[in-house]
Amino acid sequence: MSGTGTFFYGSVIQPLIRYHYLSPPIPIRPLCCISPLITSIHSNDAVSPQNGTLRFQTEHQQHSEEPLPVPSLSAAEENKATTKLRKKKEDDVVSDNRFKLRNGREVFEEKAYLVGVERKNDVQDFGIEESLSELSQLVDTAGLLVVGSTYQKLTSPNPRTYIGSGKVSEIKSAIHALGVETVIFDDELSAGQLRNLEKIFGGDVRVCDRTALILDIFNQRAATHEASLQVSLAQMEYQLPRLTKMWTHLERQAGGKVKGMGEKQIEVDKRILRNQIGILKKELESVRKHRKQYRNRRFSVPVAVVSLVGYTNAGKSTLLNQLTGADVLAEDKLFATLDPTTRRVQMKNGKEFLLTDTVGFIQKLPTTLVAAFRATLEEISESSLLVHVVDISHPLAEQQINAVDKVLSELDVSSIPKLIVWNKVDKVGDPQKLRLEAEKRDDVVCISALSGNGLQEFCNAVQDKLKDSMVWVEALVPFENGDLLSTIHQVGMVEKTEYTEQGTYIKAHVPLRFARMLTPMRQLCVSQP
Ligand SMILES: Nc1nc2c(ncn2[C@@H]2O[C@H](COP(=O)(O)OP(=O)(O)OP(=O)(O)O)[C@@H](O)[C@H]2O)c(=O)[nH]1
Ligand SMILES: [Mg+2]
């Protein structure tokens, strides 16, 4: 990572640094305005230098930090009093149940209010209530507390405030009554809409949209360098069109005398951001080159690659863990996995394949995110088989399947054979009925990744599907190509082997790559009497 890259990348993830970088005072809203980490910057919170723990102070806490008027005491009494005071402060923290421990950090759980819009003329896969319930899950994953939600049926969104003025007033009363800190819209809002709504709601209430929320979750969860770079890129691209008019405060401060000052600053800001995007893209390119080399090395090991795809929380990582003993984080949160992980699966019959776990999909997946993660998702396009993992116990399983198919079609992978896995059968009311239903279809397998039920059937189905994607060859492999022969036994399905004076005569299904390698030997075979 170059020095500039490190600085600039950090500056985006940590708005605090960003403020310094762009020289104060800049009223730029934080990129991901809702993560507890970022909240700290706006509420003058303290960061403990020892462990980096963010401590979010409520008003009540700030008061409790004030020195109490204590009469003069002896050293022992003073000690006792200090201990008591500390104990009181600790109790205060514990008793406020909005302080949560997340990933070893004590964070203040902000109150969030959700808003959705149902388009009257649009037929959506996900109904508005279902979409809001998913948004609520996302909010929970991001670490906020949902205290209420509402939606409005509209023919078309209001260009100023997205929702109608009556609804805005209704929300304003609700959020003030509930003490809400953040209002989250289920659809992407323009810079103007975000700004207008914040102005109307007043106080410290912040407004953000589903895209910012997803970007924030990705930001919190990005564990590798590449994932962090990709998320930063997506965040900046989300931010770029939203910089508009954020400098108008300068004109206001100058009493409108310095007209155009804000406009100039927007341009400066946009240029800085564009430069940063450019640097970031270059850095990503170099990281990707490195990964590609690694991937090519992996491909030189001749094993079929099978990719797990599916809606977020469907159970992909649980399946990978069960089959390979991997230790990928699997939890009941959305977007647990961001980086691809590949492990070797050894089947009982000695055959093996590589299984890759990838980032999950979701409806209304931000396009900036798909674009930023395209390289990671390229792994999918290089696989021999896609395994679409479905949480069949989910009430919206059908809609989730459609959302995944939509992303897959954007990734242009329709030519790759697909196997559908109905996961979490242990959670459905009538698993037997479901199994009968699956049997009627030739590309569906029922499993419970959690209990391990159906994994043998899954492996067999993978093997059958891989066979379908292979090429039938008859070839005469010279004895000096013994390595190739053993590889074919490993990755292909050998039906017949016969030793002749010229070499080994085989009939087998082999992956396309091997069929190509075997081409000269196939001719040799054809020329045999
Ligand atoms: N009951 C039941 N729960 C399951 C099963 N498979 C996975 N789960 C649970 O579902 C939750 C999500 O599982 P993950 O494996 O993290 O899902 P994922 O598809 O990798 O999710 P993302 O990484 O977010 O895309 C976890 O709490 C798992 O324990 C299953 O077969 N039965
Ligand atoms: Mg996962």
From TrEMBL:
Domain Hflx-type G: from-to ranges: 304-470
Biased composition (Basic and acidic residues): 57-66
Classification via InterPro entries: G_HFLX_dom, GTP-bd, GTP-bd_M, GTPase_HflX, GTPase_HflX_N, GTPase_HflX_N_sf, HflX_C, P-loop_NTPase
Gene Ontology cellular-component annotations: cytoplasm
Gene3D superfamilies given in the database record: 6.10.250.2860, GTPase HflX, N-terminal domain, P-loop containing nucleotide triphosphate hydrolases
GO molecular function, one term: GTP binding
Keyword Magnesium assigned: yes
UniProt keyword annotations, A-Z: GTP-binding, Magnesium, Metal-binding, Nucleotide-binding
Keyword GTP-binding among UniProt keywords: yes
Positions of the UniProt region annotated as Disordered: 57-89
Protein name (record): Hflx-type G domain-containing protein
Organism: Glycine max (Soybean)
